From TrEMBL:
Keywords tagged on the record: Hydrolase
Pfam families tied to this protein: NUDIX
Gene3D superfamilies tied to this protein: Nucleoside Triphosphate Pyrophosphohydrolase
Keyword Hydrolase carried by entry: yes
Protein name per the record: ADP-ribose pyrophosphatase YjhB, NUDIX family
Location of the Nudix hydrolase domain: 11-138
Keyword Hydrolase (UniProt): yes
GO MF terms held by the record: hydrolase activity
Length: 143
């Protein structure tokens, strides 16, 4: 078994992401760094030790976008495992959320954002499983 890279932990990391809806549009952000550099995804990041999933989600959304949100519920999860190109091992818990306040102010982890109708994502470069999470989040918000 190969040793873990000094940049990557040797065990899976727990992360959260937010499918934030505002007026029937979803917020997508573009990653400015690896992993997933250049791909549009949902705001989010790693859960810190001792932090609840909801607290981590509020913190990550605030750090990355300065938005305030209301969390509705778990929309799904996805596992990212290291591939031939390396990368980390993450379990990402994705939550449906409603925009409450603020306008996006991106930190240095992101370099673009778009509010899009879910069916208008088209051929944007997006992270794997994103469409499924968006559909599940929209269903939760409509329930």
């Amino acid at each position: 078994m190969p040793a873990a890279s000094p940049l990557q932990p040797s065990h899976p990391q727990l992360a959260v992401s937010a499918a934030i809806f505002r007026d029937d549009r979803i917020l997508l952000v573009r990653r400015a760094r690896s992993p997933a550099k250049g791909f549009y995804s949902l705001p989010g990041g790693r859960v810190e030790f001792g932090e609840t999933l909801h607290a981590a989600l509020h913190r990550e959304v605030d750090e990355e976008t300065a938005l305030k949100i209301d969390i509705v519920g778990l929309a799904g999860w996805r596992e990212v495992v290291p591939g031939t190109a390396g990368g980390g091992h993450y379990l990402i818990m994705s939550f449906a959320a409603r925009w409450r306040a603020g306008e996006p102010v991106l930190n240095d982890e992101l370099d673009d954002f778009r509010w899009l109708a879910p069916d208008a994502i088209g051929d944007l470069k997006v992270t794997g499983g994103l469409q499924e999470v968006i559909r599940a989040a929209r269903d939760l918000l409509r329930a």
